[in-house]
Structures are given as C-alpha cells and as structure tokens.
Amino acid sequence: MEEDVKKVKKPGIVSPFKRVFLKGERGRDKKTSEKTTERRALHTFSLSQPDHRIDPDILLNDYIEKEVKYLGQLTSVPGYLNPSSRTEVLQLIDNARKTNQLAGQLTPELDAVVSLSAYNIKLVWRDGEDIILRVPIHDIAAVSYIRDDSLHLVVLKTAQESGGSPCPSSCPDLNKSQTLGSLSESGPGLVEVCCLLVLAVENKATAEELCLLLSQVFQIVYTESTIDFLDRAIFDGATTPTRHLSLYSDSSSKVDAKEAFEAEASTFSFEGSLEAADSSPSTPASPQTKAASEGELSTTAAELLQDYMTTLRTKLSSQEIQQFATLLHEYRNGASIHEFCINLRQLYGDSRKFLLLGLRPFIPEKDSQHFENFLETIGVKDGRGIITDSFGRYRRTASSASDSTANGAGTVGGDSAHSGGAGDAPAPSEGDEWDRMITDISNDIEALGVSMDQDGGVSP
Amino acid sequence: MTMEDIKNEVQTTSMVPMALYTVMYPVFNQLEKVNLSAAQTLRAAFIKAEKENPGLTQDIVLKILEKKNLEINYAESLLRMATEDVEEFLIDRREPEFQELNERARALKHILSTIPDEINDRVRFLQTIKDIASAIKELLDTVNTVFRKYQYQNRRALEQQKKEFVKYSKSFSDTLKTYFKDAKAINVFVSANRLTHQTNMILQTFKTVV
Q: Which residues form the Programmed cell death protein 10 dimerisation domain (chain B) (predicted)?
C-alpha cells in the first residue's frame, strides 16, 4: 500500500534534474505539435468501400489530396522496365537509395501531399506547400504498389520531360544532363526512357486507395480520350475532301479536279450557293449537275465549318476562341504558316493538340506540306495523339493508316505539292475565293466567341 | 425488355433491312443445300415482299422468336451475325481500290460485331472503340481514294451515301458518350447495327453505281 502511495504522482513537485532535462523535450514536443497544428487539413472525400469509388465529378471538377512521403524521382530509367516486376523495380530503388538518388530514411522532411484530379498529379511539400512536381495524367504509364517489409511504396512510371526533375533536398540532382528528350543513348542505339516517381505511404490500405483512385482517373480520362479519338477519326475521314477545298487541282485526276475546281472557283460560298451558280458563266457542266455539285460543295464546306466550330465550342473557352480568331487573322494577313502552327500549338496545349487536325481543309496548298510535317512532329497526324504517344499503341494501325492517309492526304499535301509548281500558280479569283472563305470562317469564329461570352462561357 | 419493346426500338432505327440479309439470307443459303428450288423461291418471295413492305421480314423474325418464347436480345444477336459477308453487297470489280473497300468494310463490321463480348470490360471496350475508330477512318480513306481515281456518272449518290455513313458514325460516337453515363448497352448494339447497315449500303452503292 505504501508503495502504491509512493507511486502516485504528487502534482507541483518536479525534480530539478527532470525540470532541466524535460524542458528540452517539452520544447521539441511543443515545436512538433506546433508544426502539426500548423499543417492544414487535406482536401479529402469519403470513398465508398470496398473499391474506394469516388464521384467522377470530383476528379473532373475538383481534386482529392492524400498524404505521402516523397522519396524522389528517378530519371532516364529504361522504358522497357516492367512496372509489375517487384524485383526489377526494387533493384532500381535499392541502387538509387545507395547512391543517394532517393531518400534512404523516412523522415518528416519527406512529408508531402499528392493532389489528384482528372488533369494531373501534383506533389507539394507538406510544410510550406512548395511544389515539387506536376505530372499530367497522360504522362503516367503505370502505377505500382510494392510492399518491402514495413515499407509501402507507390511507384509511378511516367514520361520523361527534358530538363530533368527535382529531387528531395537531401539527394543530389543527378542525371539532369542526361534528360534531354525522352531518348537516351545506351549501347549501340537509342533507348526510350522514362521516370519513376517513388512515394511511400503509411500502410497497405492507403497504398491501395491511392492506386484505385488513380485507376478511376485513368478510366475517366481514357474514356474521354477514346471518344475524342473516335471523333477525330470520323472528322478526319469525313473531311479528307473528295474535291479540294483549297481550290488547287490534283495532278492524279485532272479531269475530275478541273470540273470541281471550276465549280468551286465560281460558286464557293457558304450562303446563296445556288444563286451564285445561276449567275456564274464559267462552269462547263450542265446546269442541273452544276447546281447539285455546288450545293453539295457548299453543304460540305458548311458542314465542315459547322463541325469544326462545334468542336471548338466544346474544347475552347470563349477567350481562347477569340485568340484563335486573332491567330487566323494574322495568318491570313501574312503571318507565316510556321508561326501560325506554333502559336496554335501553344494555344491548344498538349491535351487539345488534336484540334489542329480539323484545320486541314482550310490550309491552302502552298502551306499544306509544312502543316502536315508540323502535325507529324507533334504526333497528331493520322489520329495519333495522347493515347498513342504515351502508350505506344496503334503504331501498326497508325502506320498503315498513315500510309493510306499519306496517299489520301496527298491531294491536300504531297500530290498537290508535287504538282504545285510554277505552272499551278493560282489565278487571282481563286485567291479571292480563299480570302472570302477564311474571312467567313474568322467572322463566324469571332461571332462564336461573342455568343459564348453572352451565354456565360463553356467549361473546358 | 419485351418483344414489343424490342420491336418498338428497332422500328425507329435504320436496321430494319438487316433482318432480311443478316438473318434470312444465311437461312436460305443453308436451305439451298436441302432443296435448291424451294430455297430460291423463298428467297425471291422474301425479297419481293420486303421491297413492297419494308420491315416485314423483321416482323416475321420477331414474331417467330416470340412464339417460340426465346429470350434473345435481338439487337445483340443481329450485331454478332452482321460480321458475315453478304454476297449481294460485295463489289466484283478487281481493281485494288475496290477490293480494299470490301476488306475495309469487312474489317469494320467484324470489329463492330465484337462489341457484345467486350462491352462489359471497360479496358477492353475502350480498345475496341479505338479499333472501330481506325476501321472507320480506313474505310473513309478508301472511299475517298475511289472518289479521286475513278470516273462515274452518279457521283451524288456516292457522296450522299458517304454522308449517311459519317452521320451514323457520329451518332455511334454520341451513343457511346451516353452509354458511359447510363450503362444501357442495348443502345450501343442498336447504333452499331445501324452503322453496320450503312457500311453495307456503301458497298451496295459503289457496286451499283461505279
């Protein structure tokens, strides 16, 4: 009983030794608790079990945050790394930790927040919120969960951007000089490379939750991208002209093109095509055929424009549409095709670069070759785009499609380019028709931008 | 879904003629091995009756299914069967572009017919959609090649048929967008059937006009 009494703490009496010793401890505890209390709450949502389903709207219009530890990012990793192979991935990670490319110990300094939406993964430091890196969803090739004893690692295999990536402050920033482009010299040839983003989480449940969230993001993004791919394929196949909309004849079918060419030159207009046809003296075809073909041409051109404007409305904001109209004006007024392409590419960004495909019918013959080459360099020619660039699918189909499209597109680009020598210089009336068409397009697009402002804009 | 529902659904679509050439033609082909004369008579009678009364064959088929109490998803079954070549539509001309047209049409119809097997697996279904996209583009590219290279009288009919095909391709895309929200697969089957029918109509138009 006496011992029990002795064991009871008597408030107010503290040994001097303990007072000095514990003061430091209390101070550190205080700082830690202050630090903890300073950290903001994460932006999270409750997820339905057992598959951690989240409302897609949250990923599309909002975001969700999870706490992780950022161990670092490995660059110039061979692209053929199998993200499902525990051995391969761990070997890389172990080597990286030995050479200090990745953090060795899990310390509070590595605390980070991963913010996930349908657009990107963003990683920021937990304290201070400084951004570490941002990876667009279409740059993520795979996500793996690896349990290594008590360590729960989530590893993202991503595309490699030029310029390297930041490492935690405790790790030297190696391989920056090796990260130009996504190809690296290795042995006799070039090897496609990628990055590995290495995160550690608290436990298996957290790791699985993160993986399932990413899986849902992929599902949303790739469903949308797949439908976009389908729409692009339809649009591209439908808009490859049966007759040149750029008003130049095709050397491979002179007779066909001549009739079409003259019909276009005399009657190309989005409105009143039949009236124009009646007043035009120069067409050789019979009146019924001429009216029918002109009506079809105008219908085709009007349909093309309508299709493209519908697409723009769904993909661009009103401000962006106005920017597009400005660029189009500048191009019409003498800016180079190169400048036009670069500016448009910048306007559309990576996720909307496929919109450039829809411009094909409106690019004049003299610039079509440059335009086609540009499309190829940015990876959207023949419907290749986000999906195929990141995942390497459709290379066989794309190459076979590109063969046929190269032949098909020859009338827009190659064939006409070959035939487009000095002998095919346009008569003034063709240039006028082209100018009028582009003016109509520009006016319609500007009007679209104004009407969208009045409607309150459109979501991207 | 009752037979009446199916009937209402299919009657509002452009897949009515498929009952004759997708369902009945293979039956007549098999019957020819048993009784050639009877099979040919029956075929001719159905063709004439369908021409005079569009939709008659479909009504007969649906009624037979109803009478036999067969629980069959008509649109799904039609789509699976639609991959078979219809001799009457195949283009006879030997030039490579026309043979390519046959091949592209066959490829598109085949990939469309796999939709019922893939639609329940999201990843595989997305892959199927991408294959469909490529097949549509390749078919349209081949159509455009034929337009450019060959002379023909009734160009308007060909262009009109191409427009119809593009229209139904877009409709198919819209149906898929709706499907990913409401998960009603039947609408995808119906839309795919319509696109298959338009593919056959492209072949038929090129066969008769060019």
A: 13-70
Number of Cβ within 10 Å of residue A258's Cβ equals 13
Interface contact A397, partner B, CB < 8 A: yes
Contacts of B153 (CB under 8 A, 6+ apart): B209
What pTM was computed for the model? 0.57
Instruction: Specify the pLDDT at position A305.
Output: 64
Contact between A223 and B126 using a beta-carbon 8 Å cutoff: yes
Nearest C-alpha of chain A: how many angstroms from B90?
21
CB A105 within 8 A of CB A122: no
- Contact: B144, A237; criterion CB under 8 Å: yes
Closest-CA residue of A relative to B128 is A226
Q: Which residues of A touch B141 (CB under 8 A)?
A: 237, 240, 401, 404-405, 407-408
Does the CB of B138 have a partner CB in chain A at under 8 Å? Answer: yes
CA A228 to chain CA mean position, Å: 12
B134 and A407 within 8 Å at the Cβ level: the answer is: no
Kindly tell me if the per-residue pLDDT of A360 is higher than 50: yes
Distance CA A87, CA B4 (A): 59
Nearest CA in chain B to A384: B134
Per-residue pLDDT tens digits for A334-348: 888 888 888 888 888
A184 in helix, strand or coil? strand
| Residue A283 clears pLDDT 50, i.e. is over it | no
Q: How confident is the model at residue B1 (pLDDT cuts 50, 70, 90)?
A: low
| Residue A411 distance to chain B (closest CA, Å) | 9
Q: What pLDDT does A443 receive? A: 65
pLDDT at A123: 97
Between A274 and A139, whose confidence is greater? Answer: A139
Whether B137 and chain A come into contact, CB under 8 Å, resolves to yes
Give the separation between CA B91 and CA B85, rounded to whole angstroms: 11
Computed over every residue of chain A, the mean pLDDT equals 68
